[in-house]
Write a structure and sequence with these properties.
Length: 80
């Protein structure tokens, strides 16, 4: 009985999910042209591989430039 109720609850959530995912009309969208290029540049991700001691597999970490600077103080575009 509990399994049936859980199944119906899951189905109801899955059916209602697309209705909740609609965008709001007040949400600003980036304008065409230069601002979209700036938005793309801000969203560009930079990846680095970190190898942990004792492991042969390197871990790949990808973040935006702002995230690298904020979290690690590392600028991926800085000249060496």
């Amino acid at each position: 009985m509990r399994t049936i109720i859980n199944g119906f609850a899951a189905a109801a959530i899955l059916i209602a999910a697309p209705a909740l995912a609609e965008t709001k009309p007040g949400t600003p969208t980036p304008a065409a042209g230069e601002s979209s290029e700036q938005a793309a540049a801000q969203d560009k991700r930079y990846c680095a591989k970190h190898s942990a001691t004792g492991s042969r597999i390197a871990k790949k970490v990808c973040k935006t430039r702002a995230q690298w600077i904020d979290e690690d103080g590392f600028d991926p575009l800085a000249q060496k």
